[in-house]
């Protein structure tokens, strides 16, 4: 994504433009998989940890990032490409490789609809499938 697209995405989600917000959104848009705070800090060395965290929280409140747990007590973030701040229409399945510990976005696989019992209200979905990614699976079977 270029800066114009990032700025438009922020505006669409009702987020006021600042240099830090644009930089964090640009960094997220350039990643090929969800990233942890530690990984984002390493990539964005000009913004301190608390500002990155506050910005990610703001983005989450406006449906601009997905926040997911990968199963190893690590929270990861990825840019959400939903078209508005009211509803997240970019919810998809994620895959966590238990061997290489990499989290993959399976963008073409939507999270199945869950019909909750009366009285329950959904606020978010974290759909994580665990196993071996194709590379690790191939290496595992080659060793056998």
Automatic annotation (TrEMBL):
Coiled-coil zones: none
Database matches in InterPro entries: FUR (IPR002481), WH-like_DNA-bd_sf (IPR036388), WH_DNA-bd_sf (IPR036390)
Keyword Endoplasmic reticulum in annotation: no
Database matches in Pfam families: FUR
GO molecular function, one term: DNA-binding transcription factor activity
Co-factor remark: Binds 1 zinc ion per subunit.
Binding site for Zn(2+): 97, 100, 133, 136
GO biological process: negative regulation of DNA-templated transcription; regulation of secondary metabolite biosynthetic process
Organism domain of life: Bacteria
Cofactor(s) in the UniProt record: Zn(2+)
Keywords: Metal-binding, Zinc
Protein name per the record: Transcriptional regulator
């Amino acid at each position: 994504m270029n800066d114009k697209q990032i700025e438009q995405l922020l505006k669409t989600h009702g987020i006021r433009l600042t240099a830090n917000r644009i930089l964090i959104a640009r960094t997220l848009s350039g990643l090929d998989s969800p990233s942890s705070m530690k990984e984002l800090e390493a990539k964005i060395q000009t913004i301190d940890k608390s500002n990155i965290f506050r910005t990610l929280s703001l983005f989450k409140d406006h449906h601009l990032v997905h926040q997911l747990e990968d199963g190893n007590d690590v929270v990861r973030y990825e840019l959400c490409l939903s078209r508005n701040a009211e509803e997240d229409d970019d919810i998809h399945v994620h895959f966590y490789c238990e061997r290489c510990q990499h989290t993959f976005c399976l963008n073409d696989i939507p999270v199945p609809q869950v019909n909750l019992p009366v009285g329950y209200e959904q606020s978010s979905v974290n759909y994580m499938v665990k196993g071996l990614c194709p590379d690790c699976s191939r290496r595992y079977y080659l060793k056998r």
